[in-house]
Inverse folding.
């Protein structure tokens, strides 16, 4: 009979019971609702082995790759160590090795981590300073670069963490990290699939990582990035992106300014409006949306109406925290 471990609790799961039923019988509190694998409320992650294939039916491929599964559809076939999605521990130590202003309010923060860390470019990590203050930031670097992490931290007017990172965090200072989370990242296996990426502000961070990861892995389908800002200062890394456009024939970069301007090389309008108007159909495309929550929500709907499959739409809404 398979043995299940959840935190410090261990129990057996009979072969004719789902993991959800076994958890509830063990008086363990776990979110659930439909019990049919539709609502996905009982999403969990297996930490030691691949979960049964049937328990991953209906999940995005990025979640499947990280061994997420639905407890209501899981009939354990072997011992499993499981966790809820929000049970992320701060187990990784890192030090600051680089700080660079990319724009007046955007800081490039590069960390070197000391212990093994699995991640994909585009996922997010919780950064914690010494007094426990914690914020989430997206990874803007490909795993192929070694034991380095890059984040783009936008200074917020009342942001405790962002102002500290900009003004006080010093080279060589320690920072504690959580494990990587999120399903907004590049997944190899379909190198010819066209990719559409739309971001606003520091929403460029995960997209920048995803683009470099895809190109490093030999993606040869069209990759089209639309990055938007109100003014030109917000379109950071534009020189690097234009160099990338020159180097890779399948990569296209459109810098979008929403305020009226006459600057050459910049498109006039909001990034998501221009991106969605540019494509007659998004059938077969993979779409990444990162930035302001309203932009993300609207673009999800419009991308779906343009033909993109729901399973191929990946979203990361940036909600400002203090």
């Amino acid at each position: 009979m398979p043995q299940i471990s959840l935190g410090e609790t261990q129990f057996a799961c009979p072969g004719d019971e789902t993991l959800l039923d076994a958890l509830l019988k063990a008086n363990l509190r776990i979110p659930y609702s439909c019990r049919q694998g539709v609502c996905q409320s009982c999403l969990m992650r297996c930490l030691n082995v691949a979960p049964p294939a049937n328990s991953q039916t209906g999940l995005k491929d990025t979640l499947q790759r990280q061994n997420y599964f639905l407890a209501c559809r899981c009939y354990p076939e072997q011992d499993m160590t499981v966790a809820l999605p929000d049970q992320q521990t701060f187990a990784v130590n890192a030090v600051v090795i680089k700080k660079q202003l990319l724009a007046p309010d955007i800081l490039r923060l590069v960390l070197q981590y000391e212990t093994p860390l699995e991640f994909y470019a585009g996922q997010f990590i919780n950064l914690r300073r010494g007094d426990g203050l914690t914020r989430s930031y997206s990874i803007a670097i490909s795993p192929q670069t070694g034991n380095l992490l890059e984040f783009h931290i936008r200074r917020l007017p009342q942001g405790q963490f962002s102002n500290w990172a900009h003004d006080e965090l010093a080279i060589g200072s320690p920072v504690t990290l959580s494990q990587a989370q999120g399903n907004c990242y590049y997944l190899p296996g379909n190198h010819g699939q066209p990719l559409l990426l739309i971001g606003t502000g520091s929403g460029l961070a995960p997209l920048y990582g995803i683009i470099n990861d895809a190109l490093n892995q030999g993606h040869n389908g069209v990759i089209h990035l639309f990055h938007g800002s109100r003014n030109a200062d917000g379109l950071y890394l534009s020189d690097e992106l234009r160099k990338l456009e020159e180097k890779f024939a399948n990569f296209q970069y459109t810098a979008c300014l929403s305020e009226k301007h006459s600057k050459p090389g910049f498109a006039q309008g909001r990034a998501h409006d221009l991106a969605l108007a540019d494509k007659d159909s998004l059938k077969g495309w993979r779409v990444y949306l990162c930035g302001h929550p309203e932009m993300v929500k609207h673009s999800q709907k419009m991308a779906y109406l343009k033909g993109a499959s729901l399973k191929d739409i990946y979203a990361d809404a940036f909600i400002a925290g203090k």
Remarks:
- The first helix runs from residue 19 to 25.
- Residues 9 and 151 are 36 Å apart (CA to CA).
- The chain has a mean pLDDT of 91.
- The radius of gyration is 21 Å.
